Fold these 2 entries.
Entry 1:
Amino acid sequence: MSRRWILLGLCLLMLTPHGIAKATVLRVLAWPGYVSPAVLAAFEHHHQVEVELTTIDSDDTLWEKIRNPASPYDVFAVNTAELQRYIAAGLVQPIDPEKIPRLDEQNAAFRTPAAIPGLIHHGQLFAVPYTYAAMGLIYDPAQWPTPPRSIRALWDPHYQGKVLVYDGGTHNFTLAAQSLDLPDPFQLGEQDWRPVVDRLIALRRNVLTFYQTPEQSVRLFQRHHIALMLANYGSQQMRLMAEAGVKAGFTLPEEGALTWLDTWAIARRSTHPTLAHAWINAMLSAESAHALQDTQGLASTRALPAEWQPARIRWLKPVENPARRAALWQRIESGDQPDKLQTQVNAP
């Protein structure tokens, strides 16, 4: 009798409620608000799996997690510009369009991968468009009766201590290059690094701080009576502002707002590529799109907003040296003195 109970106990320990010896876990990396709890729960139920969702707050964090062999993620959200270094480093695997039937449900602007730079390499698809936003300027109408026209307003000494900017080296180097009217802010020449670093030092001195998440940006905006903020998360931040009862305006700068297109990609180390394809297909559903729009204020690639202004946006492109930008940005943000920084401009 005791032997029977021992065997029964071992069997029960091995079984989950669905009778599977060990639950399959799909590990997902995404930005805040990208995954609706309801959509996630429905995916888990339908596929009888567990989804381990990790949120990230910067491109640099995402890069470190995906390239770390000890962190075996399956699928992750990444913008088209950043995607290129994952492809170059062999950190993503090709996607089979036949396994994602909802590709046909996307807006015509996103339905043809070959028409979107960076998605196709050597005839293979490496990512699927999911959401997008313009990184415009959010401002306090009480302090800006007329909306700011240029990103140079972020450097205006009149608003020192009342400016917020996203904590991201790649974007901030591009932003500084834009403010200096450099011909290609995504590809800095050797002669550009010193003036851009000086420009970012000046920005560091003018801002209150650098934020990471959309929720943090709203709290800081409200608590410190911020006058102007670079909206890295765009419409998502405006939705959170409205929910918090904060009066704010949004405008696209005359230089053109940096605009990201985020995609879903499958990590090369994924041990569940079939499930990863199913995940991407689920994220393209109407339910997921509604959640993005209704709860986060984010656009879905199932549609284009009527007020979209193609002439006032600049889609993100790959930059000349992400590692160099990230290393220098850490030193700028930490408060290195200009003379010390300029001796490190050539550091990788």
Entry 2:
Amino acid sequence: MTPPSFQQAVLQRCLLKSYKAGESIYTVGDPPGGMYGLAFGGLGVSVAPGERGPYFGHLARPGTWFGEAAALTRQPRRVGLTATRNAELLHLPLAKIDEIIGADPAAWRLFALVTIGHLDTAIGACDDLMMRDHVKRCVAVLLRLAGCRHVAATPSAPTEIDLSQDDIATLANVARMTAGAVLRKLEQAGHIEQAYRRIRILAPDALRAMLRD
């Protein structure tokens, strides 16, 4: 949580932008720019850290911010962002970030909290991929993408994930047929519901319990 004064300084300088499903916000290797905060919709995060890629690595949900690394270091973009459904984003231009830090040099630490959040997600994803059981790896991926790996997301409504069985297979490091079989069993148990390129998480508590068994 950041101080209200910092939040106000950021929001006063943001521009609201709309993107259609499938539209790119920026790609890996793009020049540095401002930050983006997802207000509505969903974002697919693509990565290309080595010889392969870019490929889908994570799904961002409303409330998530991106772009701070390039803004603070002035280095090229390390990830790419694509709207997985119609989305609205807050854009904080690079010049406005400089303006905020110029007025309060300590504000860079608050911007850096975004990086810490991404680091926590990456560490958790690495830990999940070390699970030997392929079913548990698939379940952990679903929970992470739904934003409820360790805590409940939004109890008032099921959480939807915009991705395919191929995406799940890649993220869980299993064959597509294996991922499909796992998802069918979870659906039969009433834990999830599948549609075209979309999975609805119906019972996150039950899925988390599977990881503890």
